[in-house]
Design goal:
- The chain is α+β, with helices and mostly antiparallel strands.
- The chain has 3 helices and 2 strands.
- The protein has helices at residues 20-30, 49-57, 85-95; strands at 34-39, 42-48.
- It has a two-stranded antiparallel sheet.
- The mean pLDDT is 94.
């Protein structure tokens, strides 16, 4: 089985300049815990519910003023749609993702 058989095709993205509150609202509406961050049609980061909780709330950052870029992860890992799920799972395990 390959990634294209299980991947999500309709992906919502946020901007690094969106507020954390805006991004969290999208995550709530769509019921997912991570959000790709794009700028100029380029993937520049990922924001997770854990980033919002640990990096923002724990630091006392106000979600209605703080920007996604302040807490997003910039080291983005990705896979190609023709890769084997087994191979991708192995890499994810090795990287603790």
């Amino acid at each position: 089985m390959i990634i294209s058989e299980v991947m999500t095709r309709e992906v919502r993205v946020a901007s690094p300049d969106d507020t954390l509150q805006c991004a969290a609202r999208v995550m709530e509406e769509e019921d997912f815990g991570s959000l790709p961050i794009a700028e100029n049609d380029r993937l520049v980061g990922m924001l997770t519910d854990r980033d919002i909780t640990i990096r923002a709330v724990a630091r006392g950052l106000p979600p209605h003023e703080s920007k996604v870029r302040e807490v997003m992860s910039t080291e983005v890992r990705y896979v190609y749609e023709d890769e084997s799920i087994r191979d991708v799972a192995q890499v994810m395990g090795d990287l603790h993702v």
